[in-house]
Amino acid sequence: MQSKICELIGIEYPIFQGGMAWVADASLAGAVSEAGGLGIIAGGNAPKEVVQAEIRKIKKMTDKPFGVNIMLLSPFAEDIVDLVCEENVPVITTGAGNPSKYMSRFKEHNIKVIPVVPSVALAARMEKIGADAVIVEGMEAGGHIGKLTTMSMVPQVVDALKIPVIAAGGIGDGRGMAAVLMLGADAVQVGTRFLVAKECTIHENYKARVLKARDIDTVVTCQHFGHPVRTIKNKLTMEYDRLEKVELRKTDPDLAKFDELGQGALRKAVVEGDIDHGSIMAGQIAGLINKEETAKEIIDSFIIETKEIIKMRYSQWV
After folding, report:
1. What are the backbone angles phi and psi of residue 91, rounded to the nearest 5°?
2. Mean pLDDT per 10-residue section of the chain, whose length is 318 residues
3. C-beta separation of 226 from 259 below 8 A
4. Which of 13, 59, 75, 154 has the fewest beta carbons under 10 Å from its own?
């Protein structure tokens, strides 16, 4: 399944693994790249030496292309920009900010730049500053989200841009991949499905909660204050809901309380396995996931299902 993205980056299949903070390390990213997709190491809020160690691990695991996700609001963002240039990382994805001030440096080092965007306007702006492609992430995704759905946003971005579009959010199998390819996307980015990859090093409690999730088990916290985040329901999300109702009654809400409540919550879930008070970030497709597989098995199933669906549907319609 070749596409513009495969040609641009040099990967076998048009599947990106999401750059999930505290989750996407060299173990997972290396396995995805080895299987023919694009594995992505998450920079998150980690310092330079931590990300550097993961980059050097993945270079020992595979000689295939990989990427690093840079969170531009991180206090270490400048350091991570330096790092990806020093280490000749072939691809970077960016989130939580505008990468324009770094574009000339990235281009000097022949780094492909692919920002994550939540709207047509931001996608067009990224194309204008020289992005090689964009990842269009709908609100079905886990973690920090925007307001538009993948299904509605992808075709609008495809119509507005000339550069390749990667669809993300709500894509958990070949059916989802086939759907967004029909909408004009060149590739998909997958996060939640890779949470239960055997090479994913998150706590087993986190994996088990994703595997048990139903279709209605994710919620969005901080819809009125702060940054909306999609996670699986637990005691933490109930406390967010209670706090939001309290603060909405005030003329001067205390927004610091939301930051305090979320401090370290993702680490609690990923590292410590606290599924009551940790932030179990996962997308709406968590209800589709019912088994742990290797990264290769996941990617192979995506490709086989997508080809079968497109072939079957196309033959029926023409």
Report:
1. -140, 140
2. 88 96 96 98 94 96 96 93 95 92 93 96 95 96 94 96 97 96 96 97 97 96 88 96 90 86 93 96 96 97 92 63
3. yes
4. 75
